[in-house]
Amino acid sequence: MELKKIIVIGCAGQIGSELIMELRHLYGNKNVIGNGRKTAPSEKVLESGDFEFFDVTEKNKLFEACKKHQVDCIINMAAILSATGEQNPMLAWNVNMNGLINVLEVARELKVKQVFNPSSIAAFGPSTPQDNTPQETVLKPTSMYGVTKVAGELLADYYVQKYGMDIRGVRYPGIISNETLPGGGTTDYAVAIYYDAIKYGKYTCFLKEDTMLPMMYMPDCLKCTIDLLQADYSKLKHHSDFNVGAFSVTPKLMAESIRKQIPDFTIDYNIDFRQAIADSWPNSIDDSAARAEWGWKPSYDLDAMTADMLKVLGEKLRKR
Ligand code: SER
Asked: How many whole angstroms from 212 Cα to the centroid of ligand 1?
């Protein structure tokens, strides 16, 4: 589908901040509008195109921004993640559920052509098969974040079948990136470890050494998001709940990968409440539906990502 005007809700965040620049590159700066609540987006996001400050829970402001810019695609990257969600469950419910229903209602009212709303591996729970977790499986999460992600998948699919809308989404694994820090997630260790490896040569991890989780490097995250946005909708059997995998890793394996580049790197452990969240999530993901329906294929494995992360962060941190 030819999209003309896209708004990225939540583009001061880890994924949104990079996704918006990639979309501006593809669709033209003036055709991709940014949004954030109060966290200042980066200068390059502010300077390269339009930006609207509002909270996704403020439906009228969302409506007015979409109407003013005549958007035909809403990408909803505003969310409270798993760890913050356990500390403040009502905030997670409010932002994740009321934000999403506002997006869906505004899209319905303005006849917006396409909506992208991400889900997460947090949609799974302790009773889900943990290895090679299937596309269709038990969705009984034990975190509030996970509850909102399952409800979000169901709500999005409801709008698809009730109103014939085009709504898409993937279950992101932990996303590892070097531009904007993640905030409030359980997989955040997998970003912090690289910063600390360069700055201090050591890292204290809040998850146990053998905690296996599915992860993905940002270039693959951008690729899967944009590939799904651009996929032929008539060929999709699933809509807002695609499993997408890249690789699985434990803190210990990640430390070993870093040691290939920084031999003196050391890791120790100070486990906190995030361990219980991580223990409820899968070890690895079966993403054959995404591969079959829209050609998903990741590019980075652990060592390729580590080499790139350390190179980019090394340059960035040395400049300071
Ligand atoms: N990165 C997220 C989190 O840790 C998972 O979707 O909460």
From this structure: 14
Q: What is the mean pLDDT of residues 258-274?
A: 98
Pocket test of ligand 1: the residue of 81, 176, 217, 224 to mutate, having most ligand atoms within 8 Å of its CB, is 81
Model pTM?
0.97
Q: For residue 119, what is the enclosing H or E element?
A: strand 119-120
Whether 120 lines ligand 1, by a CB cut-off of 6 Å, is yes
Q: What was the pLDDT predicted at 1?
A: 58
- In tens, the pLDDT along 152-206 reads 999 999 999 999 999 999 999 999 999 999 999 999 999 999 999 999 999 999 9
Q: Which amino acid residue places its CA nearest to atom 1 of ligand 1? A: 174
Q: Which domains does the chain have, with CATH numbers?
A: 6-174+216-243 (3.40.50.720), 177-215+248-319 (3.90.25.10)
Please report which residue ranges of 142-217 form alpha helices under DSSP H. 144-163, 189-199
Residues contacting 94, CB < 8 A, separation 6+:
57
